[in-house]
Design brief:
432 residues, Immunoglobulin-like, Aminopeptidase, 2 domains, binds zinc ion, hydrolase, N-acetylmuramoyl_amidase_3, AMIN_dom
Amino acid sequence: MPHSTRLPRTGLVRHLAALALAGGLILAAGPAPAQDDPAGGAAVAIAAETATRDGTTRLTLTLSKPIEARAFVMERPDRAVIDLPEVNFQLDQETGKLSGRKRDGVIASFRYGLFAPGRSRIVVDLAGPAVVEPVETTKTREGAVLVSIPFRKVDRDTFRKAAVAGDPSPAASAKAAPARESVDTRPLIVIDAGHGGTDPGAIAATGVFEKDIVFGFAQSFAERLEQSGRYRLVMTRDRDVFVPLAERVRIAREAKADLFVSIHADSISAAPQVKGATIYTGSEKATDSESARLAERENRADAAAGTESGEGPADVADILQELTLRETRGFSAGFAGRLMGQLSPVMEMSPKPHREAGFKVLRSPDVPSVLIELGYLSSKSDLEKLQSEEWRDRVTGSMAKAVDLFFSGRATLSRPAPVAPRRSAAIAPVSP
Ligand SMILES: [Zn+2]
């Protein structure tokens, strides 16, 4: 292959920190890695094929232009994650579903999609332990670009080492060893600004959208936490974009988040006198019918934006997940308690400030998660506060204190063990 060039190994020599940070907008690391794009627009993928030869299985993408790929492997379940700049996947619906006879070498199946604004991701379910070799890029005579990702079968031990290093290549991981002490072990917090894009959330009588209010609040909360230097921050959206509910959960889980905080400010049109903040934690059983209705309305966000939510990762089916979820919910309730303690003195709380309901975004089995309703857009006094910068500074300050208390109290506790995300469907593209 005369045109064969190897992509720069940038990113192959990475460790867990990079892995965890791959989840979305990276506040802690300054500007997100720029995807310079002189050719303009995302690369278009028109085919993704697998082939096995001499013990190596290749996943080959046919693209409109070259892209940089970064891969790492993860255990439980065995999988490889390939991070890409934004790619416009124009693939056949069945691509990646390699069940039964179609299964190819170490690749059991794969799914793909927009993972966060500006980034796409391919997740490859491995049939057994394997590592990713350096990615190769070639050009066809017709001008298309073939990006070939080779998977080499290895023994369990080698795979485990690669998974721990967050590095697909054993050789590269050996070279990376001296840098390992710089692995960032600070807790990772995912801030989820509700709604976005085609989904405005609640709309105030004044025409203000919930999606804009909660985004501004989420951003200033994330900045405050980031400034403390104690946490790594990831936001599920960094602009006015629609992000499906399951995707928000997936971002937190794939980043191995230690805490997930979803920010909302809904409205109750039937009761404009209802005001104050409420903190929700997840539960199959809602505290009251009002909470159940709210969760149900929120859970319809995907359908309302024209996206099929599909099977969520939090489909609790086995006993291990069930146990992990129960333990995680204990942590979630603990954080909700901290939040109430810090918020009650500085802001108005609703009559029952901690409630439970079946919000889809609160279903990560292994990430402590809370959803805070800052107030109601249907209440005139709440709306005024929600738009006041002074109020926002005070509230985000108290929330940051609650986060500090939560993590200092948990120093001696172990984090719930991650459990396998249960997935089968392709990652739904984020754009509506
Ligand atoms: Zn909402």
